[in-house]
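Saturday, quiet lab. Running sequence design on the structure tokens for the scaffold JK sent over.
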């Protein structure tokens, strides 16, 4: 494909960005800036909030120039009767979603080039070459949009995402001198959680081998703290210990804490995506959900699927298999 002239203004449309969504999109955000270093990039969340305007804003500083959220764009047929973002013009529009109505509404923007994978690129002003197949993972699908727009190959680059200030705080919470192994027992739905007692057993085995378990509990798992602390007294709970040191628990702190770990075990969860973003070698546990679409973004990853052990529930994944996978990561680190 021929490389095309560089756009000066770019708008990227998303419905909204929760924590896990945004972390998975970071290779796309970096690729946008690398492909068009001089462009002004606007991130448009048409149907809700984006953590790129809040908790993760430090990670996109210098990558995204403008964030618009709760824009009320992309939901109703009546929007076809008016122009979204009136008075604005963009050299390039990238539509990262595939709902045809939303794409038709975005086509009402003023632009020079419009790129969307909806309806097999039917609405795009540029399309992939013949024989193109839709990628399996979400991140590869949206990286392909940059390729279609630029005419150049875009590689998926995974890199740790923590910021310097958070890493200094993480070093205070998890100081040098110990080998830390992360345990992330929570998830947005309890059907996605491996039994807590199995996380405890993995922690006990790490203690027996001279390592320190580090339990990452999010806001929805705070009621588990006393139970897990009582069962695994040698463990550290850095997000709960942070306030005593004058440190505010944040998603960026969780990412930085992961960078202090030698390995980690996590459910399919937002917490799992956070520790993956720190670059930690990760054992990722999956039950009824589909791993292939949105695996955690970390350079060294072992995925363990319940279906590989004859079931779909998380309980199907045996302790010994997780333990062996964790040890294999630790031996490489």
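Result came back. Writing it out in full:
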């Amino acid at each position: 494909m021929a490389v095309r002239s560089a756009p000066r203004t770019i708008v990227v449309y998303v419905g909204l960005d929760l924590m896990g969504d945004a972390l998975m999109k970071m290779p796309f955000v970096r690729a946008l800036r690398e492909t068009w270093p001089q462009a002004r990039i606007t991130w448009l969340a048409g149907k809700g909030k984006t953590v790129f305007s809040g908790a993760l804003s430090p990670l996109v500083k210098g990558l995204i120039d403008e964030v618009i959220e709760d824009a009320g764009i992309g939901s109703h047929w009546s929007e076809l009767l008016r122009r979204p973002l009136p008075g604005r013009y963009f050299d390039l529009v990238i539509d990262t979603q595939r709902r045809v109505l939303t794409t038709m509404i975005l086509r009402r923007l003023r632009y020079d080039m419009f790129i969307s994978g909806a309806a097999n690129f039917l609405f795009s002003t540029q399309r992939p070459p013949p024989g193109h197949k839709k990628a399996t993972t979400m991140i590869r699908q949206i990286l392909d949009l940059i390729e279609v727009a630029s005419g150049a190959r875009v590689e998926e680059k995974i890199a740790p995402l923590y910021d310097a200030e958070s890493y200094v705080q993480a070093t205070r919470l998890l100081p040098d001198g110990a080998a830390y192994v992360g345990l992330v027992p929570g998830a947005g739905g309890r059907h996605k959680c491996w039994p807590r007692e199995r996380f405890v057993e993995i922690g006990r085995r790490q203690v027996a081998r001279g390592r320190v378990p580090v339990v990452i509990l999010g806001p929805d798992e705070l009621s588990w703290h006393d139970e897990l602390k009582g069962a695994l007294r040698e463990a550290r709970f850095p997000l709960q210990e942070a306030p005593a040191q004058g440190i505010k628990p944040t998603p960026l702190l969780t990412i930085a804490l992961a960078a202090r770990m030698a390995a980690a075990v996590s459910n399919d969860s937002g917490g799992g995506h956070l520790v993956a973003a720190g670059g930690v070698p990760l054992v990722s546990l999956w039950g009824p959900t589909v791993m292939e679409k949105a695996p955690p973004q970390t350079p060294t990853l072992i995925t363990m699927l319940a279906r590989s052990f004859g079931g779909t529930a998380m309980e199907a994944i045996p302790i010994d298999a997780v333990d062996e996978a964790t040890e294999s990561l630790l031996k490489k680190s």
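Notes for JK: The domain at 164-332 is CATH 3.40.50.2000 (Rossmann fold). The chain has two domains: 9-150, 164-332. Ask whether to fix the surface positions before the next round.
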